[in-house]
Amino acid sequence: xxxxNCLLVAIAGITSxxxxxxxxxxxxxxxxxxxxxxxxxxxxLEAGAExxxxxxxxxxxxxxxxxxxxxxxxxxxxLEWFSVYYAPATSRQLNxxxxxxxxxEENKRSDPTGLQVMEEMLFPYDTAVSADLLKEARGLISSLxxxxxxxxxxxxDTAHVFDACKMEVFRTEALGISGFDTPLSGWGIxxxxxxxxxxxxxxxxxxxxxxxxxxxxxTIAVTEKTVPAGTFDYAAFMAEQLNPLSAAMTDWFxxxxxxxxxxxxxxxxxxxxxxDSSAFNTAYFVHNADAIPTPQKVAxxxxxxxxxxxxxNGQRNCSSCxxxxxxxxxxxxxxxxxxxxxxxxxxxxxxLYAGLQQAQFYDMxxxxxxxxxxxxxxxxxEMHSSPESVASWLNSDSVLKSQFxxxxxxxxDTILPRHVMRAIAAYIRELHxxxxxxxxxxxxxxxxxxxxxxxxxxxxxxxARCATCHFMPLFNGTGAPSFATSESEVLGVLxxxxxxxxxxxxxxxxxxxxxxxxxxxxxxxLRNIGLTAPYMHNGAxxxxxxxxxxxxxxxxxGYGITLPGQTLSxxxxxxxxxxxxxxxxxxxxxxDK
Length: 593
Known about the structure:
CATH topology of the largest domain: A middle domain of Talin 1
Number of domains: 3
CATH architecture of the largest domain: Up-down Bundle
Helix content: 40-55%
Shape: globular
Low-confidence stretches: 6-12, 15-24
Strand content: under 5%
Largest sheet: 2 strands, antiparallel
Number of helices: 20
Strand order of the largest sheet: 1-2
Oligomer: single chain
């Protein structure tokens, strides 16, 4: 307790100093102050982790263990703005998902560690796992060593510190408030307040004015109010608190003339909220500078998208399966193959927002849109063609050659296959309108959503736990604020709704032979979901109501099917028929106008 009391005194001291400080005389001063703040807080986390280890070793009662665990989580949340931004690999060890980490390129997996793993051991707690809990507590202490080294070896400047703080606000909105990393304890809202208070401290050190710090206080106060279980108003909290907070941070930063970071990220530096219509930096998702969309490339890609000469038989183009009026899907369970009789392997996914993710196809086999175009052109059931054959007929047209030359200035005298793939990919990358009623609501139009849709949004974020896999603002498996990875899930999709028989498609396992990837499929976007029926990779689910029933029951496990790798919770969501209708109404508000 002596160490803990000393830490509390030190924290109180620096907090008091923060309250009286608005500017810094030098970069060295700022760097030193951030180091001091971080050192105090990692000392606190280390002390908490040591206490948890000691209690685990002594096989202390459940409530004592939970209390110590809660303090560790709170201490981590105070450091999260720094940890995830400056030491992402270490952060995964500290608070990563309780699922194996799959490295597809190396065809290997790593066991999960950290706070989320411990949460599964403590909620509920079984003394049979006490040895495992002790092991995890020791591992937590070990993982703090590289985090401390990162603190000691990092030179802090206002540009990166501000960016880290702003990303933390976005992280709380996209992940924290939904309980993404606290699904069993239910501490998501409370921990959001802890994380925001730490960000407020750092913003004070950066020189933020009292008006902005007061905005933090107002937002944090909402997280500290006691409300009946299941009644927290996520919709209002995002629209009225978190979005204005991040907007105010951004406005102050640029008004103060502070220098932004210079390298591109998924979100533009100027993005005031996660829901700005132009928040995304498309170039971040491009793997080659020559593939960055320009109006000329997009125009050529659009022309090719609708040209039947793409197919080997000259009778099909991209829009044959990706029809704009159906949100770039086709309305079929599975489309007819090029032979006119058989069916393609899977349901046609939307191309809207496809450019803002890190993997393509349901089985995630293509890392880029260019790879996707290549795959589709070569696929005998879909196009039975090739970029080479497309380039051949393009080169026979002098007008098109000149247009390609204008779009790709480094092109010599010949259109190459890569130009074909990059042009089509450029068009697809621009298919992200962000013009739904939900977007209008998040931009301040309180009338954009009906009462039922707002209720559905609150259920989506809370009781139904939809947002823990379909991350805002894209509503797919690509999580804010880094958007660095796209996730897959094992749901145990049935061959037909209500029939206790797994669909035989093995998903990602087909290409990567790891047991954890059996029946794993990419988490698709829910944007425009009202236009893209039927659903799931097999197209067997005709309505959103059928989909909701499947989730509400607990996936395959809810139908009595044993699926060891199922990542969807096997527990029923216990949603009423009315609640499911509200969620469907909300999802229909994700349709772009």
